[in-house]
Specification:
By secondary structure, the protein is mostly helical. It contains 11 helices and 2 strands; from the N terminus they run ααβαααααβαααα.
């Protein structure tokens, strides 16, 4: 079947088939990658290898106040970053995506090990909002730059830019994907987990990782193993 041929099935059915393809590989693989990442992340967070530098605030950080409504957007990263993998149906492409985002996280963790950073203390009323005390207690202000929250979101957005057309989802859905990514990026500053410098460096890391993954694969998009 040619890639530009009319789809045989409706978009909803095609998405459903892709979600079910390699379901256990996706589920167990995602769990394993996230578990390994968080073990190293929290080890470096609680036991930095050297002097912890403080990332300075900018005028943008002072302008963006503490906005509790952004917490669900901040947490939605874990859905967004899994979306490209869940929409892939080819084992080779799944491994390519896992290797790409794993490489981005590995580079970020390496930077945290060699150059520990944190954000400056923020004046915000966390106690008056459910969930923030837990968030600040678990994910403290360290491991700041580059923001892996932002790097992962940008990498996933660029992956979705290549995945969505193959499902039959056009420009509108791609714009919605980028809007979701932008809101996640903004939320990192709105919930005071990151500052602008962290965000900028994270975006560069995510984009560089996506570009490297594409050059290594040499493919214009993610292939499908199913006869859609």
């Amino acid at each position: 079947m040619k890639r530009n041929a009319p789809p045989r099935y409706g978009t909803a059915r095609r998405i459903g088939r892709r979600l079910l393809a390699h379901f256990w590989l996706k589920s167990l693989g995602t769990t394993a990658i996230m578990t390994g990442f968080f073990i190293v992340y929290f080890q470096l967070l609680r036991h930095p290898w050297g002097h912890v530098s403080t990332i300075p605030l900018t005028a943008v950080d002072r302008w963006i106040g503490f906005q509790p409504w952004a917490l669900p957007l901040y947490l939605s990263l874990w859905v967004y970053v899994c979306a490209p993998a869940m929409l892939l149906d080819c084992r080779r492409e799944l491994l390519r995506y896992a290797a790409g985002i794993g490489g981005v996280c590995a580079v970020g963790l390496g930077i945290f090990a060699l150059w520990p950073t944190r954000i400056p203390p923020m004046q915000a009323d966390y106690a008056g909002h459910a969930g923030f005390a837990l968030l600040r207690g678990i994910d403290a202000s360290g491991n700041a730059c580059p923001s892996l929250h932002v790097a992962s979101a940008v990498f996933a957005a660029l992956a979705l830019e290549r995945v969505l057309p193959g499902i039959g989802l056009g420009r509108r859905w791609r714009w919605l994907s980028w809007a979701w990514c932008a809101l996640i990026v903004y939320s990192t500053m709105a919930v005071k987990q990151h500052v602008l410098i962290d965000v900028a460096c994270g975006a560069l890391l995510g984009a560089a990782g996506a570009l490297a993954a594409r050059r290594i694969s040499g493919a214009p998009g993610y292939d499908s193993a199913l006869n859609d």
